[in-house]
Design a protein that fits this description.
Order of helices and strands: EHEEHEEEEHEHEHEHEHEHEHHEH
Radius of gyration: 23 Å
Structural class: alpha/beta
Bound molecules: phosphoenolpyruvate, manganese (II) ion
Mean pLDDT: 96
Number of strands: 14
Low-confidence stretches: none
Distance between the termini: 39 Å
Helix content: 25-40%
CATH superfamily of the largest domain: Aldolase class I
Strand content: 15-25%
Strand order of the largest sheet: 13-12-11-10-9-8-7-14
Shape: elongated
């Protein structure tokens, strides 16, 4: 961490800065220039130190050098991590395709969708049993009954299952039925939930909050990793922007940036970003081209009857077409890389 003193700051300021650094067990290296004094704080960084130093009158700027997240950062783990869910591996080169309905509505519909996405090339099934809805009167999900349907589909079709857990009290319940826990965008900073999931022995899909920076997102991943659960996959799903013809604005730059800053696998959710099915395939391709390790996409065999997010659900045919495009893109990207 570098501490830059104001031009002409008296020696008392320097003394105070050095004392504060040493009190927190770090070493201070002072560099006096003609006009400015700069102090380097060396050692294990205390997260309180930047604010403690900024509050000293005469300190102009405090510049952290290391990232505030350690376990998620490439500073401490240079090579890409992989996360394994059943037979599926995230971060190993080939894109992982997760597809399914927004919500688990009933057994028959979920089975039909699972069958369709498997035939189209999906490796995992998605579906919400606990739905975080903006409107309290909207369909809230089937709860445990939905989890049972997902478990049965996993057994019938051999597709590992991911579902959202919205409440820390349900983490154990959800772990009993599925292969991967999803933290939804609205819950990215639900720190009680993140701590509980950090104790779980299940891979996690951590969505980025619609108004969160990449740094906030990686700090949320750090909550899970520091709890002892190192099986985290990140998911970009669009930020709140000013464009009103799409539900959110897919931030492909955040995928590229997060790839630089973290070793964790990252996938893209084009469905919740677009909010409309005609834009889902182009956004999926853009996310993969920016470096995403896979996609999670909403598909419904009867989108006009869907209880949740019908307008953004791909039909079976659209899913198959998108899969062909993804395969072409993957071949082209492999050729460019070699
Ligand atoms: C979902 O995946 O169904 C969902 C609600 O996503 P998000 O948390 O990204 O809105
Ligand atoms: Mn949805």
């Amino acid at each position: 961490m570098l501490i830059i003193l104001q031009s002409g700051a008296p020696d008392a300021v320097l003394q105070q800065v050095v004392e504060r650094i040493e009190q927190l067990g770090m070493q201070a290296h002072v560099s006096k220039g003609e006009f400015r004094t700069i102090v380097g704080a060396i050692g294990e960084e205390n997260p309180q130190l930047p604010d403690l130093l900024r509050s000293i009158e005469g300190v102009e700027n405090v510049v952290p050098i290391m990232k505030p997240y350690k376990l998620a950062s490439r500073d401490f783990h240079h090579t890409n991590s992989t996360v394994t869910v059943g037979s599926v591996v995230f971060g190993q080169g080939l894109p992982v395709i997760i597809a399914g309905p927004c919500a688990v509505e009933d057994c028959q519909t979920t089975r039909h969708i699972a069958q369709a996405v498997k035939a189209g090339g999906a490796q995992m099934l998605r579906g919400g049993a606990f739905k975080p809805r903006t409107n309290p009167y909207s369909f809230q999900g089937l709860g445990e009954e939905g989890l049972k349907i997902l478990r049965d589909c996993r057994e019938e079709f051999g597709l590992p299952v991911v579902t959202e857990v919205t409440d820390p009290r349900n983490v154990e319940l959800v772990c009993r039925y599925v292969d991967m826990l999803q933290v939804g965008a609205r819950n990215m900073q639900n720190f009680v939930l993140l701590n509980e999931i950090g104790q779980a022995h299940k891979p996690v899909l951590l969505k980025r909050g619609p108004s969160s920076t990449v740094k906030d997102w990686l700090l949320s991943a750090e909550y899970i990793l520091s709890g002892g659960n190192n099986q985290v996959v990140l998911c970009e799903r669009g930020s709140r922007g000013f464009e009103d013809e799409m539900r959110f604005t897919l931030d492909v730059g955040a995928i590229a940036l997060a790839k630089v800053d973290t070793h964790l696998p990252i996938i893209v959710d084009p469905s919740h970003a677009a909010g409309r099915r005609d834009l889902v395939a182009p956004l999926a391709l853009a996310g993969l081209a920016a470096g995403a390790d896979g996609i999670i996409v909403e598909v419904h065999t009867c989108p006009d009857k869907a209880k949740c997010d019908g307008p953004q659900a791909l039909t079976e045919e659209m899913f198959s077409t998108m899969m062909r495009q993804i395969n072409q893109l993957t071949r082209a990207m492999t050729a460019v890389a070699s």
